[in-house]
Amino acid sequence: MTELEKIFLTSAVTICGGLLVYVVGQLLSKFLIEPTHELKKTIGEVRFNLAFYAPIIHTPISRNPERSQEAYEALMKSSCDLLARVNAIPLYSNLSSFSRGFLPSKEAIVESAVHLRRLSTYVHETDSKANDSLDTIAKQVARIEKNLGLELLE
Q1: pLDDT tens per residue, range 10-39
Q2: What structural domains does the chain harbor?
Q3: How far apart are CA 26 and CA 66, in angstroms?
Q4: Which of 3, 33, 122, 130 could share a disulfide with 60, CB 3.0–4.6 Å?
Q5: What's the pTM value of the predicted model, to 2 decimals?
């Protein structure tokens, strides 16, 4: 093998190796890193909605049809977004167990989505029926916060 052939072979192997590293990096980025980042942003949006709509969720006297509908839509959107984001990540269960607490388990996310939908059914209630539901609402919110690893709001 001549020196020129060695040079071409070395550069071809280097280019193929670089291309392989680039493709694997892009695949990891598109299929794991970006969807995981989107899921964490969605969990942050859940925290925002629970905090922003807390007066509507926890205080029946502050409810009116317009604000209750806004809260309902935000909670339902958060629920759907959680389900969509967690199912967009391939092998999420393995990834969450490998992350050592950085990501909630898939079961916890699905359960939180269910609790968000349940919570959204209470925001239109008023009068004594709403007052009777306050304990259930508080338990739903606490369960969501626990499942998603959110800090409790005081």
Answers
A1: 999 999 999 999 999 999 999 999 999 999
A2: 34-148 (1.20.120)
A3: 44
A4: 130
A5: 0.87
